[in-house]
Amino acid sequence: MNERRTILVRYDEIGLKGKNRDQFINRLVKNIQMQMKDLEGLKFKVPHGRIFIHCSKKSTEECIRRLQKIPGIASASVGVTREPEFDALAAVGVEWIEPLMQPGKAFKFCVRTNRADKSYPHKSPEIDRQVGSRILGQLHSKGLEVSIKEADFILEIEIGQDETVVFNNRTPGLRGLPVGSSGDILGLISGGIDSPVALYRMMKRGCRAHGIFFDNRPFMGRGGYDKVVKLSKLLNGYQGKSKLYVVPFEDIQVAIRDHCRPAHRVVLYRRMMYRIAQAVAQQKGCLALATGESVGQVASQTIENLNAVSDVVTLSVFRPLIGMNKQEIINEAKELESYDISIEPHPDCCSAFMPPRPSTRAKIVDLEIDETKYPWEVLMLEAMAKMETVDLDTLTV
Ligand code: ATP
Ligand code: MG
Q: Residue whose CA is closest, atom 1 of ligand 1?
């Protein structure tokens, strides 16, 4: 028996891309190949914009597991390649259906054909009938029936110009666009629940999402750093080739704490994070920033305060969670499998740095007055000079 399998990969929004379609498909194929480069014996074929992976039967499970983590894929099916002849196609149906049947019990099936190759001489309903009646002919006496509405088993056939595949399964993908089709962005990532989800969402829009973490290790310990590294490694598993930039933030926090109005601290910290993130993004060729902010979630995320932090940068700031509530974000963090890492306990923001009553409506003019009280430009350059770059492809955690 032929132990080779064919995986049919369906892409998501690429179909909408008109003239750029080939570029998007090539990008997706490259991403798939990168994620599977250590698997042996795979063969990729991309005839007329359709993506096939030929592999051994035993590697199909691992291939599907990896395909589920690659943005841009709508679904994937494992099947076998056959000549587009009714007898050969029906033989696959008999081989798959017979072992599922139980003596004395009715079993319902149907055939569903998609004729991608419009030059094939028979139309889909005709193929369904021809193949279905051959299968029925062989298994009717054992209790096989046809039912389109209540089938226990659906045999799917996809007739293509170069390849005809028979399959009976569809695994849903992440959908969205292939990473790399929309450019690089820099995401502000903390060890919390929100920011990894924000970066995940941007990845699914085709961005390669690098991370920047503002670390206050002398006061908060290594816990935050370790979590952010783990989260970034997890995110890199979906995209590859991403970096994490770690910027020491303690001197800036100390200066703000010691020289500025306590109620403004949080917004002042964030203005510095944004300024540095923008400078790093420009250095590293990232086209925009992203954060895990959501309106009203905490004091620093009122619309006034969001405006006050955005005011210090000219790059676009993407906030993909802006209209989501916490439960929705948590659900998505569970899907991403970042949730369990994010809820590991670690000191989030040392109480010494948090004001008792943070301002919910900081005014930009007042923040600018505070910023004359400490040498932020100097501290910003110093922090950037000490920045650490973590290569997430080579890092093992
Ligand atoms: P998260 O769950 O992502 O930590 P949060 O609900 O704790 O978010 P905040 O701490 O106010 O909310 O942070 C809002 C956003 O600001 C985060 O989603 C992240 O994008 C960014 N951010 C906060 N702290 C840091 C940090 N130390 N380093 C980098 N980015 C940060
Ligand atoms: Mg946080």
A: 192
Report the CATH number at residue 376.
3.40.50.620
H helices of 149-286, where?
A: 194-203, 217-220, 223-239, 250-259, 265-284
Assigned domain for 34 exists: yes
DSSP 100-147: G--TT--EEEEEEEEE--TTSSS-HHHHHHHHHHHHHHHHGGGTEEE-
First to last CA, the chain: 42
Mean pLDDT by 10 residues, the chain (397 residues): 86 80 93 95 91 96 97 97 97 98 96 94 97 98 96 97 95 96 97 97 98 95 94 97 98 97 96 98 98 88 95 98 97 97 80 85 96 98 98 91
Query: DSSP state, 70?
Result: S
Q: Rounded distance, CA 287 to CA 181, Å?
A: 13
| Domain extent at residue 370 | 184-391
- Please give the pLDDT value at position 323: 96
State how far the Cα of 309 lies from the Cα of 278, in Å rounded to an integer: 12
The predicted pLDDT at position 298 comes to 80
Q: Quick one: pLDDT at residue 350?
A: 63
Whether 380 contacts 256, CB under 8 Å? no
The tally of domains found in the chain comes to 2
* Side-chain-side CA neighbours of residue 128 (13 Å): 15
Look at residue 177 and tell me if it is in a domain. no
> Is the shortest distance between the CB of 194 and ligand 1 below 6 Å?
yes
Interval between CA 388 and ligand 1 midpoint (Å): 19
Residue from 185, 194, 354 whose mutation best tests the ligand 1 pocket (most atoms within 8 A of CB) = 194
Same domain, 362 and 235: yes
Q: Is the CB of 213 inside a 6 Å radius of any atom of ligand 1?
A: yes
Q: What tokens were used for 245?
A: 């930039």
Q: What is the dihedral of CA 257, 259, 261, 267, to 10 degrees?
A: -60
